[in-house]
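Hi C.,

You asked whether I'd gotten around to modeling the 426-residue construct. I have! Everything is below, sequence then structure, no commentary in between.
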Amino acid sequence: MRDLDRRRAMGVGAGALAAFGLAGCSTDGKGAAAADRGGKEPGPTKSRPAARPARTIGDGSTSYTGKQPHQPPAPVPLEPGQTPPQFVVFSWDGAGEVGNGLFPRFLDLAREHEAHMTFFLSGIYLLPEAKKRLYKPPNNAVGASDIGYLKDENIRLTLKYVDRAWREGHEIGTHFNGHFCAGRGSVAHWTPAQWRSEIRQAKDFVTRWRTHTGWDDLPPLPFDYEKELVGSRTPCLLGRDALLPAARALGWRYDSSSPGGTQRWPVKRGGLWDLPLQAIPFPGRGFEVLSMDYNLMVNQSGNATNGPVRHRARWREQATDAFLAGFRRAYETNRAPLFIGNHFEQWNGGIYMDAVENAVKRIAGHKDVRLVSFRQLVDWLDVQPPAVLDRLRALEVGQQPAGGWRTHLAGTPATTSATRTPGTRG
């Protein structure tokens, strides 16, 4: 999609686009980039969980294997005056394995650093291209998709790593199906009823992959997707206003489709937690950038996925520093959760994947830091007293609590003045 079309689809002016860009898309399913398509709780253990007997569901594509392993202890409310944790959520749009090894790479990284992540699986990544006419996307031709269908061997790999991800404690959300961001068929124009149709189909492709592929040599996915699926991110961050009524009716708990959020404690919109991609500092630039690999790329290489090699080392360092600057600003001030979105892509030589890995390694291990999934975050938010959340939300971007956390969350009067870190936005 051309940049002008993206501005129109987003309703964002040129100035805002320069600062934030737009959420990107996943690979075309054939390995080629398709950017134009769009106290501390313990983490997972490093050993593989033991297999458990499964109760198959439906055609045997999914199964119930009990409570998800490697979850943190049940969350509890903050104690009066307690410093809140610093939550960081790394999430992945599409979450298909196209043979570039990125899915297992980040599963290994997460295991090494006791991190959990959210994988927003695109439903059609489990549907063979030969069966694409089973997909009836709203306002588009039957079988159409703006991301490619995966080859059979890549569907098998995707099943393998989705299975592993859930068993190791990660969340499986949805990125829906065809990733339509432009023209009359864009998700920006869908109605709640059309979103319900898209969601039904996304679930069907996950829960009936065995019927659609005819394969009987692979184990079922180890979860009941109807119960596990509680959140999403829309293609290109479009169409969320019409999605929310459909998502709320299904009992979903959050949505992560809002663009241009700031580093403040979240609120609910339309009955769901609003967990937006955020504006974070962009080192060396006079504006902030949306906290996603694609948006960094747009602002570095002008949407080129294979930019000049001579710039890549500098771009990698700048991308790493942007993620870390967003982390430090929250960690040292209001402790707002940090959300970082990504794609399994090798744009500009894979420098954004390197930046994400560098950020995980340098964030993990800090006191009070929890690398969690979106689902785990909303579990924690849901048990906090409303008054505590109100006090957290009262802090602006980069704003430290006057008198420290002991005063700010103790229910005692606090002054309205606050200190800010240099160069931060309020």
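If it helps when you're writing up: The longest helix spans residues 312-331.

Thanks,
B.
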